[in-house]
Each structure stands twice: as C-alpha cells, then as structure tokens.
Amino acid sequence: MKVIIFTATILFCAFNVHAQQNKDDSKAMIDSAIAMMYAQFWETGKQQKNEYYLESLYLLNEQDQPLTYVPSSSKFKFINIYDDRNRKVLSKGIYAWKVLTALNKNKFVITIINFYITYKNRSYNFSNGGGSTTVFEYSCNEDQWKLLTFNNQGI
C-alpha cells in the first residue's frame, strides 16, 4: 500500500512539474515579444534623441494592471490605472504598453498596444499609437515553440 501511495505521489509531482513548465514557456514568449519591441523602440529613440519615452514607460496586462511576472518588466514602471491615488500622475499623461495574449490552435499570439493614457474631467482617455503582433507556433515534431512572425507598426 505504501508503494502505491509513493508511486502515485511521484507521478503527481512529475505531472505537476511538467504543467508548470508550459506556463514558463508562455512567460518566455511574452518576454521575447516585449524585448523585441523594446529593442526597436530603443533604436528609434536613439536616432530621434528621445530616450525619455522608454525611461517613463509603463507595462500593463489585459486588465490594465501592472505586468510584473516577466523578466523584462524591470525596464518598465508600474501603475494601477484605476486606483484613485494615481489620478494625479494620469492627469499629466503616461505612456504605456498593454500586452494581450491569445492561443489559437497551435499559435500563441502576443499583441502589444502602445498607449498614451490621461485622466481629465473624470474620464480616462486611451490614445493608441500603434503596437506590435508576435506569433509563435508550436511544433509537435520538435516539441517546442518557434517564432513565426513579428510585425511592429506605428514607430
């Protein structure tokens, strides 16, 4: 009986570790998409002598909350858009990237939208300035995700 319980525990742990690995893949793909877009904006900012944009950039998830779980998030600032304490900052306006993800069959699509966000007259204003779409495709033969396309618009 102890052997069966021990074996079941080992199998459960193995499946649990494998399931956690897939979440790390999604984080890595999101981080890659952010890093590619950041690199393009960095090059453009150096050419236009506008590094202030990247130094004051906020990173948001799909619910307009701070996106902090990817390694490249250390390059960004964080803010809770709908918190009353942040209205003063928002009244001056902030630049933000909103990261959206979607899984469609064997393709993982990451869309990053470039926003300028303000709060005036008790109303939020989200001005879209372009963004990027990154598509990863899962290869069953190689058992890994491959970068399919990266399209950046609005720079």
TrEMBL record:
UniProt keywords, alphabetically: Signal
Domain of life: Bacteria
Signal peptide: 1-19
Name under which the protein is recorded: DUF4440 domain-containing protein
Organism: Chitinophaga eiseniae
